[in-house]
Amino acid sequence: MSFRVLVAGGTGQVGSAVVRALLATSSCAEVVLVNRREAPLAADARLRQVIMDTGAPSFASDVAELARTCRAQGDPVYAASCIGIGKGSQQWSEDDMRKLEIGMVGAFARGCLAAGVERFGLLSAAGSSTKSRIRYARIMGEKEDAVRGVGFKQLAIFRPGIIAGNAHTPGYLAVLGRLVPGSFGTIDQDDIGRAFVGEFLHGKDGMTILENAAIRQRARAL
Hints:
single chain; alpha/beta; Rossmann fold; 7-stranded parallel sheet; two-stranded parallel ribbon; 7 helices; 9 strands; about 40% helix
């Protein structure tokens, strides 16, 4: 059965990997990027972008309207949030981080659910916890809680460690990270993209948290 996907953050490093994986899937009928500004797109008729003011009070309702038009085509519609600050997070104020990671992502998720989207994939990070003493990890935990509270039938939360293949990850760090076992080690960016698709196609109802090992397993089973 064919499906369509709304992607927020699809022009970023991990988001681009998710988009590539979706376009490599024959059953994906369309990928719609929800962007703040126009971006160059790959030459694929199934890929389009919709420009929205992601900071506007109407953002959630605008997303809902877009998702409804996609559902009207007759295919199920899924959604992925690949929004993330990545490199340079130390230069962001906590308020600005929350506006993006919690405010914008939360509004995107609520708009999707309001339109009947049941499957949602969320990019987070290893070590995410609302109880963490590390600011970034704590805000990622709050983002997870915000999306979890929306109430999707199926929610997959991805917590990668050091991301290899990412322009924001120094090459030496990705190499050293391969020596680190567990969830804080290196994970290939394309594995994350394929794992998003795998969860859309084969994920179970409820919430699933995928760290490095589970991401690899899901990517290879696609």
